[in-house]
Amino acid sequence: MVNKNILIVGVGGQGTLLASRVLGRLAAGLGADVKVSEVHGMAQRGGSVVTHVKFGDKVYSPLISLGDADIILAFESLEALRWSDYLKSGGTMLVNDQRIAPMPVITGDKEYPSDVYEKIRQRVGNLVVVDALSPALDCGSGRVANTVLLGVLAAGMDIDKDIWLKCLEETVPPKTVDINKRAFNAGYKML
After folding, report:
1. Domains of the chain
2. 99-113, pLDDT tens digit by residue?
């Protein structure tokens, strides 16, 4: 199995950690060596949350180095920009088109940049921007936007969709399995 480095970035409360658990379970189920490292910032205040997920034949370090991520899955636009330097040349950045103001913007000390995607495009060759919130709301809850994004990620990977769905079912709370499956399928159809 070819080694993959996937960086998942977002803001506290967006479900990035659940997404990383699904991805880690998926890779382990495929027999890969898996390393997952979660970094929680001031998540309770809407701070940055980053997860490094590495898997393949043999993985030595749990952290992805600058310029070494094959894929960056960004749950929020400014976090995508903040972490874009971690993407390798030829890598893919998948971004949820959602803006969550960080504390300096909320307090009025800074402004949310209006040109986030232009700045990202200057750094990243393959940028895919999707609206994950709308299909999540169509499924019944904005809280499953993370699962919509997993569906988008899965559509671009060479791993059977049913394996993804099984891992999702084994990871999410039992009462949320149906809505998460609908959200995943909605994301899977977006690419």
Report:
1. 4-188 (3.40.920.10)
2. 988 878 888 999 989
DSSP string, the chain: ---EEEEEEEETTSSHHHHHHHHHHHHHHTT-EEEEEEEE-SGGGT-EEEEEEEEES----SSPPTT-EEEEEESSHHHHHHHGGGEEEEEEEEEE------HHHHTTSS---TTHHHHHHHH-SEEEEE--HHHHHHHT-GGGHHHHHHHHHHHTSSS-HHHHHHHHHHHS-GGGHHHHHHHHHHHHTT-
Q: What is the pTM of this model?
A: 0.94
Share of residues in the chain with pLDDT > 90 (%): 83
- pLDDT tens track for 136-176: 999 999 999 999 999 999 999 999 999 999 999 999 999 99
From the list 61, 70, 9, 65, the residue with the least C-alpha distance to 36 is 61
Reading the block at residue 136, the tokens are 């999540």
